[in-house]
Amino acid sequence: MLQRALIFSSSNPICSQLPTTAPPDNTVFPKRNGGWIIPFSSYQLPAFRLRNYRRTLLPPLCSASDSAANRPNMASQDEQDPRISNISSAIRVIPDFPKPGIIFQDITTLLLDTKAFRDTIDLFVERYRGKDISVVAGIEARGFIFGPPIALAIGAKFVPMRKPNKLPGEVLSEEYSLEYGKDTMEMHVDAVKAGERALIIDDLVATGGTLSAAIRLLGI
Ligand SMILES: O=P(O)(O)OC[C@H]1O[C@H](OP(=O)(O)OP(=O)(O)O)[C@H](O)[C@@H]1O
Ligand SMILES: Nc1ncnc2[nH]cnc12
């Protein structure tokens, strides 16, 4: 997934049918070809070092580990990777769901395709293994599908970022706007420590609101 610090962009080889509406001005993600930023894409940005994690979330405290200079290289590697087009075609696109004007990217069909699903996980594992990442933060709900296998394979812990009032311990909360509504995301306060390097995983970035909230929650 997902962004001076982040994860993904769109001219995205996997979900190539996303609409090309520009993200809001306040997003920090790169806009390649004026498209959206979305997880399974070539412009991945990677992981953050939580230098100074704190409970009161203030301005960005983390930096991206992969320099901008390395990213075009990653992009061209992905463009040559034959797995990407197969993964892209395994995602079903449903217009006007859940309401008119939304072009829904349905990853449940990807999950039915064992090769495409495995290849998706492998792509992330190949990219992030050996990068000193100790935390994979998965965003509910679809980040819970892709995050755990990636976390196990790269030897990181998995931290769920949950919908409100689901976690039993002390939490940090972030409210955010969605393409179709508002929501709140929560994370256990003690799940991530200062100095840890985190990778945020989700299935898709549309407006970037969810990913931005996840970044704020990590205190980046
Ligand atoms: O970039 P954004 O505009 O924030 O949208 C992207 C988010 O929207 C979807 O989740 P959703 O909130 O629909 O929750 P779900 O996974 O529980 O269905 C998707 O899985 C991302 O988390
Ligand atoms: N276009 C989209 N497809 C799938 N999930 C989404 N969540 C927000 N926008 C979405």
Automatic annotation (TrEMBL):
Its EC number is 2.4.2.7. Residues 120-219 form the Phosphoribosyltransferase domain. Keywords: Cytoplasm, Glycosyltransferase, Purine salvage, Transferase. Its main location: cytoplasm. One of its GO terms (molecular function) is adenine phosphoribosyltransferase activity. SUPFAM superfamilies: PRTase-like. Pathway: Purine metabolism; AMP biosynthesis via salvage pathway; AMP from adenine: step 1/1. GO terms for biological process: adenine salvage; AMP salvage; purine ribonucleoside salvage. It is found in: Cytoplasm. CDD domains: PRTases_typeI. Gene3D superfamilies: 3.40.50.2020. One of its GO terms (cellular component) is cytosol. It is an enzyme of class 2 (transferase). Homodimer. Belongs to the purine/pyrimidine phosphoribosyltransferase family. This is adenine phosphoribosyltransferase. It comes from Gossypium raimondii.
